[in-house]
Specification:
single chain; 3% strand; 68% helix
Length: 403
């Protein structure tokens, strides 16, 4: 059996196992799809409320596309299974592009890493909207060099599903040489989405997801929440976990939490601007796309996670995109962060769904595991920022003198 055939067999096995994980433990890992997405789709297809069009929604409007697409097959196949199959098809398209004829060692290693990452995070990585954006992010990132219009279009479409791929778009704009193509494609896709929403009568709710995100409290899994989780576990007065019924998330509160909540969004914005600024300096000094884009994309994606007051477990699958691209372009430099990413993903699956009940009742071992996972995420963030700072750049003035 050829190497390529082995990889495709592994692809099928991994996705079968992860779909199965979504159905275990009373659908714990796939609860959002099984309950929320199914409900949203059924209500909209029945002529009821249309989230993002007739009312504000926590997600950008294009997130409705996969939700309704799976919902349209509800009479033929179970909604949760249909979602798993949709993600598998999208992953297969990006996987085929990544592997090709399995001749590139970097791409083969990147493909094996991606399969390991899917398995390490388990059901929560597949049964969320984030799973739709990952193959779009991988394909879009790989196409940026040869087909920047198509690459930018895919990344923009992914951004209108979940906001985080905007980090990849920024990295593409900063690190790329054909910036006009990136901007043009992004503008065209965005204009099409906005026009569709306006025509549908949803102009008042077009950016409702922005307000929902900024008004959130501290989600228990976010790195910044680790201090409050420890305080709550230690029984400090005023620190505890509570359930936000509107957002369907568990949040944590404690002394001075309002100040932290108010500060986190500006901190994240400033942090992302600083990272983009470093990348811009490197690009101005002549850094190549291959050396700059993976590190800049990874730093921006991790910035979204580390500096965010929201921290759902499925966010960790975002890490797969810049690491896959990094391995494909420079496998030797990205092996260690790839291994650390797999550890982070495996710990995340252990936390959710397996130890989540223990975490909610603040068992010390579960809180310690959460803190350890978040520390590793911060370590990875520090690594990629240092790597970004050390990206080799050629002084353009010197190049002009020597030409």
């Amino acid at each position: 059996m050829s190497r390529r055939a082995v990889m495709w067999v592994a692809f099928c096995l991994v996705h079968a196992v992860v779909i199965w994980l979504g159905f275990t433990d009373d659908h714990a890992a796939s609860w959002d799809v099984d309950q929320l997405y199914r409900w949203w789709a059924g209500r909209t297809l029945a002529g009821g409320a249309f989230p993002g069009i007739t009312e504000d929604w926590v997600y950008p409007p294009l997130a409705q596309l996969p939700i309704l697409l799976v919902g349209a097959t509800a009479g033929v196949i179970d909604y949760t299974l249909g979602w798993g199959l949709l993600v598998t098809v999208l992953d297969a398209a990006a996987f085929a592009m990544l592997v090709g004829r399995a001749r590139s060692r970097g791409r083969v290693l990147a493909a094996w890493f991606w399969l390991a990452a899917i398995l390490a995070l388990g059901g929560v990585g597949m049964f969320r909207l984030d799973a739709v954006t990952v193959p779009l992010g991988i394909a879009g990132s790989l196409w940026l060099l040869g087909r920047p219009w198509l690459g930018s279009a895919l990344l923009t479409a992914a951004t209108w599903v979940k906001v985080w791929p905007a980090a990849l778009l920024v990295a593409a704009l900063v690190a790329g040489r054909r910036r006009l193509a990136v901007v043009g494609a992004a503008a065209a896709v965005s204009a099409a989405v906005v026009a569709a929403v306006v025509i549908g009568g949803g102009s008042a709710h077009l950016f409702g997801f922005v307000g929902d995100q900024t008004s959130r409290g501290l989600q228990i899994e976010a790195p910044v929440s680790a201090v409050y989780m420890v305080l709550a576990a230690a029984g400090v007065r005023g620190a505890w976990i509570f359930y936000d019924r509107e957002l369907v998330t568990f949040q944590v509160t404690g002394p001075g939490v309002d100040v932290v909540i108010a500060a986190m969004t500006p901190i994240m914005i400033l942090g992302m601007l600083a990272i983009a600024g470093i990348g811009a300096i490197k690009a101005w000094r002549g850094a190549s796309f291959g050396s700059l884009f993976p590190s800049l994309a990874a730093a921006l994606v991790l910035g979204f996670i580390v500096l965010n007051k929201v921290g759902s477990p499925q966010y960790m699958i975002w890490l797969a995109v810049p690491v896959v691209v990094g391995l494909a372009l420079d496998r030797r430099r990205w092996r260690r962060p790839a291994l650390l990413t797999l550890v982070i993903l495996a710990l995340t699956q252990l936390l959710f769904p397996f130890w989540y009940d223990a975490l909610l009742v603040l068992q010390p071992s579960a809180v310690a595991l959460l803190v350890a996972r978040n520390v590793l995420v911060v370590v990875l963030f520090a690594w990629v920022v240092v790597r970004l700072v050390r990206v080799p750049a050629h002084n353009r003035a010197l190049l002009r003198v020597t030409e």
